[in-house]
Write a structure and sequence with these properties.
Layout: H1 2-26, E1 38-42, H2 49-65, E2 69-73, H3 80-87, E3 95-100, H4 102-109, E4 121-136, H5 145-154, E5 160-163, H6 169-181, E6 186-189, H7 193-201, E7 207-211, H8 212-220, E8 225-229, E9 255-263, H9 268-283, H10 285-293, E10 297-298, H11 303-324
Parallel strand pairs: 1-2, 1-3, 5-6, 5-7
Antiparallel strand pairs: 3-9, 4-7, 4-8, 4-9, 4-10
Length: 329
C-alpha cells in the first residue's frame, strides 16, 4: 500500500514539474536574455518607412545583444494579419512586433481586426515619429497645396490620391485633411507604401499621401514634388516644404509613430532589458544619422512613456474615426 502511495505522490510531483516548466521558461532572468535569435515582425511590406527603420534598428540591436535579430515582414489588411499573429505568440521576448498608428486605428474601422491593442500587447519602446506628406509628380500642375485644393473643389470626387492602404496612417492623414479643407478626394488604397508612391511617380495617379521617411530620397532627387507636410511646423529635413497648418489649416497636425511591442505576459525584466537596449541603439550616432536622414526623428523613451502615448492616441482615434465617419468593413 505504501509503495502504491509513493508512486502516486511521485506522479503528482512529476506532473507539477511539467506544468511549471513553461512558466519557468517565461520567467527567464533578463541577464540570461536572449539565449537565441529574436524575431522582429514588421506588419507592412518591404520598402516603406516602417521596414527601413526596422532594419536599421535590427542591424544595430543584433550587435548590441550578441544575438541575431531576424526581420520578417507579415503584411496584409493594413497590418491586421501580422499583428493578429503576434497576439498569439509566446510571451517570452523572442517574437516582437514593429508597428505604427494602424495598431490603434484598425480596431475602430475593422469589425474584427483579430487583436485588441489594450489587452494583447505590452509596449516596449517608441522608435520614431515623422509626418506624412502630400506628393505629386514634378510635372504636375499642382505646385502648392492651394493648387490641389482649388482643383478638388472645381471637380468634387474627380481627384484621387494614393495611400499605403485602408487604415494606414497616410490614409488617416489624408482623410483628416479632406475634412479640414471640406473637399472630396477619391481614395485609392495600395497594398504597400512603395507601390502607392511609385504610381504617383509614374503618373498613374495625380497625387498621394506618403510617409515622409519612405519618400524623402525621391523628393530630394526631384522624382516627386512635396506639396505640404502634416507636422504642425515645417520638418527639418524638408525645411523648404510648408506644413498644412501654415498653408491655411491652423492647428492641423498628424504624426506617424513607429514602435516595438511584445505579446502580453512577457516578463517585465525582459521588457525593461529590451527597452534599455533599443534606447541605446537609438542613441547611436550612426543610427540617428540614418533615421534623421530619411526624414524621421528618433524617440527612444521609456516603456511607460510609450504606453501613455498609446492610451491617449487610442482614445483620440476613436473620436476622430467617429467624427469623419471612416469605416472599412
Amino acid at each position: 500500500m505504501k509503495q502504491f502511495a509513493d508512486k502516486i505522490l511521485a506522479g503528482l510531483i512529476a506532473a507539477c514539474a511539467l506544468a511549471g516548466a513553461p512558466n519557468q521558461a517565461l520567467s527567464q532572468p533578463a541577464s540570461d536574455y536572449p539565449s537565441k535569435p529574436v524575431q522582429l515582425v514588421i506588419v507592412f511590406a518591404p520598402g516603406g518607412g516602417l521596414d527601413v527603420v526596422g532594419r536599421i534598428v535590427a542591424d544595430r540591436l543584433t550587435k548590441n545583444l550578441g544575438r541575431q535579430v531576424i526581420v520578417e515582414n507579415r503584411p496584409g489588411a493594413a497590418g491586421n494579419i501580422g499583428t493578429a499573429s503576434l497576439a498569439k505568440a509566446a510571451p517570452d521576448g523572442y517574437t516582437l512586433l514593429e508597428t505604427t498608428n494602424s495598431f490603434n486605428i484598425n480596431p475602430f474601422i475593422y469589425r474584427n481586426p483579430g487583436f485588441d491593442p489594450r489587452k494583447d500587447f505590452v509596449p516596449v519602446v517608441q522608435l520614431t515619429e515623422a509626418p506624412s506628406v502630400f506628393v505629386t509628380q514634378p510635372q504636375s500642375p499642382y505646385r502648392s497645396l492651394q493648387d490641389m485644393v482649388k482643383a478638388a473643389r472645381s471637380a468634387p470626387g474627380k481627384l484621387s490620391y494614393s495611400s499605403a492602404g485602408n487604415g494606414s496612417p497616410t490614409h488617416i492623414a489624408a482623410e483628416m485633411f479632406k475634412a479640414a479643407a471640406n473637399i472630396d478626394l477619391t481614395h485609392v488604397p495600395y497594398k504597400s507604401a512603395a507601390q502607392s508612391y511609385q504610381d504617383v511617380m509614374g503618373g498613374q495617379l495625380p497625387m498621394g499621401m506618403a510617409a515622409l521617411p519612405a519618400v524623402t530620397g525621391h523628393i530630394q532627387a526631384s522624382r516627386l514634388r512635396a506639396l505640404a507636410v502634416t507636422s504642425e511646423k515645417r520638418w527639418p529635413t524638408l525645411a523648404e516644404v510648408p506644413s498644412i497648418a501654415e498653408s491655411g489649416y491652423l492647428k492641423f497636425s498628424h504624426m506617424t509613430w513607429i514602435g516595438v511591442l511584445a505579446p502580453s505576459g512577457t516578463p517585465s525584466p525582459i521588457i525593461a532589458r529590451l527597452n534599455r537596449e533599443i534606447v541605446a541603439v537609438l542613441a547611436n550616432a550612426d543610427v540617428r544619422k540614418r533615421i534623421i536622414g530619411m526624414g524621421a526623428a528618433p524617440v527612444g523613451k521609456s516603456s511607460s512613456d510609450f504606453e501613455a502615448m498609446l492610451k491617449a492616441e487610442y482614445e483620440a482615434t476613436g473620436k476622430l474615426v467617429s467624427r469623419i465617419g471612416l469605416k472599412v468593413d
